[in-house]
Every structure is written in structure tokens, then in C-alpha cells.
Specification:
single chain, alpha/beta, Alkaline Phosphatase, subunit A, nine-stranded mixed β-sheet
């Protein structure tokens, strides 16, 4: 037998013990006994047991009184053009067809600038509502809700590429592996409906986002807090329904046995986060078998409500259905619902802004306006935050004649509801919409403001990981208090 070979007399199970468990059992056993005796009188064990048994998704209180209790995030994947939708630039009309002036800096080589002159807005802007907020003719229905919108015209990020920018808008970092905004919200607030996930994602059925599921992943947070993808129809989650020949009693008994065995398995593995999340998911899936089909049954709604969202119309039926599902979910206690508009290309209008944005505006304009009106009449608007935006904006210069390239240096995001001032624009880009210029709002600032509306100090909502207290906003971010009502 070699020095490193195992002793045949030892069981195989002993080699599955983690190093941490071994040290705790062998080296710290007597100390743990003494500590338990010392703390017993203070009820420490009871509190520890209570914390261990507590559902990680049970409702939790934020740091201070929130303005928002829940979020609907409308993510326009691919990069919608701010200068064609929410950020009017008269100079783009005045200097259309001319090269970008050298005073705007070396964004690209002068040769490319000469080949890509300034492209005017595709459609005109008009003052809307009592506020006079200017919105493009691309969005006639949303324009009627202008007095409810707060447009942040000075947003900016750190990457010109889709995946990194999708990650940053969702997780605060251009690098993969960080928890998403929805996961932080689930971690901080839990859910008000134990039969549904705290964080639900509805991707565009035409295809996934660039960067994929990590955009709604939990990163280093426990896996319980990751986004759950859902879709409309009788099967909102694949493989959710039990087999027809298995009764509810049989399924419940089988699940109880599995949970008992899994609990023993988990205890032997130092409460591994991913294993614990999988165990919890079995129980949640059982409860969702009755809750989820009811939530996605939009035919329960009145004909007037379906028409409000454009359901039944060719262009708006699909996105309108998902917007209505978002309302039905948050109405039933789901904390964070994220809808994606656009497949792997989506709003990425490199060669024809008019056709691309015309198509996606027709699909989303009426449903989003319908969502805002429906939330208002149901009394949900006052404590629901609605977010609209993509991973970046688009250049003021043309690309391939009638398109626009990516622009992370200046773009627009709008917020609505939950105590946010409506009918206003905050910040601005420069004269042609190339860079954020006044009252700049970095992605970290946007996230800090969102967390503030939920009742969180973004510097205090942390999770200890790899030796440091990690947070959504890293070491930056400030709350944009000027937009708060």
C-alpha cells in the first residue's frame, strides 16, 4: 500500500466529508460543546435553529420605508436609439449629412467619421401632455402617458459590446458572474407569494438575449435568488405539470420522502447553497403547479382589459400578453418581473433604424401604455416601479447609410410610478446625443436609485463573498434624488 492510498477498512462515506466539516468535527468539537453550553441560557441555539429553518424567500423589511414594493423591468434588448425616441436633438437636423465635428473628440477615426455623417431623427418629436415632455412619433401611445414618465437622458455605461453591456445593466458589472438586480431584490425583500418565485423573467420567445441567462442569474448569492423564466400559455414552466397517472396524494408523499432524504444529504455537506436551492425548488415547483397556470390564464380578464394591452392584434398580441402577465404576477406578490423585447438582435439597428425601430415600437408601444394605465386604475402604480431601457443607446452618426452603431456613452432610460416625478427629463447628452453631458447617470447611479426606491441603502445591502462585502453598486453609485417626488 502506498503512503497516499486509502485504508480499505475505512468506509467510502468518510472520503466525502469536506475539509471544513472534518476540521469542525475533529478539532473544534469540544470547543463547540463548551460554546453551546455557554450560549444556551441566552437562547442562541433557538435563534440559530429558527434562522436555519427560515424560508430564504420569506418577506423581509428593507432599511427604511420604501416608495416601491415591486418592480416591472421592460428591457429593450439590442440598444434602442435615444436620439430617435426620447432625446430630441435639433442639431442633428441642422447638421444632418455633415461629419461629426472634431470638437466631439476621437470616438472613431476621422476617416470613418467622414464616411458616417450625422443622421437626423427618423421621426419628429412633439411636446406631450401637460408637461410638454418631448417624445418621438415612433411612440404615439406611450406619448399619451408622458406626464407619468421620468426620462433619464444622461445614462452611460462602460462597454460598447452587447453581452458586457447587458450584464452591466442587469448586474452592475461588465463581467459575468455577478448577481442580477432582480436577485438582489429577491435577496433583500423575499416574496409576498410563497407559491411563486420572487424573481420572474420572460424572455422574448423569438430568441434569447446576448449574454444569456447570467443576465438574470444569482451570481455569488445563493442560487435560490436567481430568476425563474416563464412564458405564456398552459405550460408557463416546462415539466411543471405532474404525470396524469399520479395522484396529488401520491406526489405529495413522494415529495415528502425526497425532502427528508435531501435534508439529510444537505446536512452532511455543510449546507451547500446550490444544493439547498435545488431542494427548495422541488417544494416551490409543487406549489406552483396550482398557482402558475392560474396566473398565466389571461382569459380571465375582461375584453376591455385585453384590448388595452393590444391582445388579439397582430403586432401587439405577444408582447401585450407578457405585459398583462407581469401585472398579474406583481398583483399576486411577485417582487420583480423582467420582460425582454427583442431576440438576439432585437433593437440593434445597424442598417435601418426606420424598419427596425418601427417594428419594435409597433410591438411594444401600445402594450406598455396599456400596462401603465392598468396599474393606475388598479391602485398598483403608486408602489410599483416601472423601468424601460436597453443595454445602451445608438450613435448620432449613420451606419450603412440608414442605421446607427452602439453608443454606451450617452443614452436614455425612463422610470415611472413609485414616487418618481413624472413628466420630466433629467440630465442631458451633448448637442448631438453622443455623450452624457449634464447630470450624468452611470449604471451604478441608476441601480443605487432603484434600490433607494425599494427602501435600501445601496451601500448596506451587501453579501459577504471572497473576503469582502459585495454589493450591486460595487464601490460607486449615488442616488439621483432630484427625480424623487
Amino acid at each position: 500500500m502506498t503512503p497516499n492510498s486509502p485504508d480499505p477498512s475505512e468506509s467510502c462515506e468518510s472520503y466525502q466529508t469536506s475539509r471544513r466539516s472534518f476540521l469542525r468535527q475533529a478539532g473544534g468539537g469540544f470547543g463547540a460543546i463548551a460554546l453551546a453550553a455557554m450560549l444556551h441560557g441566552e437562547g442562541f441555539n433557538r435563534r440559530l435553529l429558527s434562522a436555519a429553518e427560515k424560508n430564504p424567500l420569506s418577506p423581509k423589511q428593507p432599511h427604511f420605508k420604501p416608495r416601491a414594493k415591486r418592480i416591472i423591468y421592460l428591457f429593450m434588448h439590442g440598444g434602442p436609439s435615444h436620439v430617435d425616441l426620447f432625446d430630441p436633438k435639433p442639431d442633428l437636423i441642422k447638421y444632418a449629412g455633415q461629419p461629426l465635428p472634431e470638437s466631439f473628440g476621437p470616438v472613431m477615426t476621422r476617416r470613418k467619421v467622414a464616411a458616417n455623417p450625422l443622421l437626423p431623427p427618423i421621426k419628429p418629436f412633439q411636446p406631450r401632455g401637460n408637461s410638454g415632455l418631448e417624445i418621438s412619433d415612433f411612440l404615439p401611445h406611450l406619448a399619451e402617458c408622458a406626464d407619468d414618465l421620468c426620462v433619464l437622458r444622461s445614462c452611460h455605461g462602460d462597454s460598447v459590446n452587447h453581452p458586457q453591456s447587458v450584464y452591466q445593466m442587469n448586474t452592475g458589472s461588465i463581467l459575468i458572474g455577478k448577481p442580477s438586480l432582480g436577485s438582489w431584490v429577491a435577496y433583500g425583500l423575499g416574496t409576498e407569494n410563497q407559491n411563486m418565485p420572487a424573481f420572474v423573467v420572460m424572455p422574448d420567445p423569438a430568441g434569447g438575449a446576448k449574454g444569456g441567462p447570467p443576465a438574470w442569474g444569482s451570481g455569488f448569492l445563493p442560487a435560490t435568488y436567481q430568476g425563474t423564466t416563464m412564458r405564456p400559455g398552459p405550460n408557463p414552466i416546462l415539466n411543471l405539470r405532474p404525470q396524469a397517472n399520479i395522484s396529488n396524494t401520491q406526489q405529495r408523499a413522494a415529495l415528502d420522502l425526497i425532502q427528508q432524504l435531501n435534508a439529510k444529504h444537505l446536512a452532511e455537506r455543510d449546507s451547500d447553497s446550490e444544493l439547498e436551492a435545488r431542494i427548495n425548488s422541488y417544494e416551490l415547483a409543487y406549489r406552483m403547479q396550482s398557482a402558475a397556470p392560474e396566473i398565466v390564464n389571461v382569459q380571465e380578464e375582461t375584453a376591455e382589459t385585453l384590448a388595452l394591452y393590444g391582445i388579439g392584434e397582430k403586432d401587439t398580441d405577444e408582447f401585450g400578453t407578457r405585459c398583462l402577465l407581469a401585472r398579474r404576477m406583481i398583483e399576486r406578490g411577485v417582487r420583480f418581473v423582467q420582460l425582454y423585447s427583442g431576440d438576439t438582435n432585437g433593437w440593434d439597428a445597424h442598417n435601418n433604424v426606420a424598419d427596425n425601430h418601427g417594428q419594435y415600437c409597433r410591438r411594444t408601444d401600445k402594450p406598455i401604455a396599456g400596462l401603465l394605465r392598468d396599474l393606475q386604475r388598479r391602485g398598483l402604480f403608486e408602489d410599483t416601479l416601472i423601468i424601460w431601457g436597453g443595454e445602451f443607446g445608438r450613435m448620432p452618426m449613420s451606419e450603412q447609410g440608414t442605421g446607427r452603431d452602439h453608443n454606451p456613452w450617452g443614452y436614455s432610460v425612463w422610470l415611472s410610478g413609485a414616487g418618481v416625478k413624472g413628466g420630466m427629463a433629467y440630465g442631458s447628452t451633448d448637442a448631438v446625443g453622443l455623450r452624457a453631458a449634464e447630470n450624468k447617470v452611470h449604471v451604478h447611479d441608476l441601480h443605487a436609485t432603484i434600490l433607494h426606491l425599494l427602501g435600501f441603502d445601496h451601500e448596506s445591502l451587501t453579501y459577504f463573498h471572497n473576503g469582502r462585502d459585495e454589493r450591486l453598486t460595487d464601490v460607486a453609485g449615488h442616488v439621483v434624488k432630484e427625480i424623487l417626488g
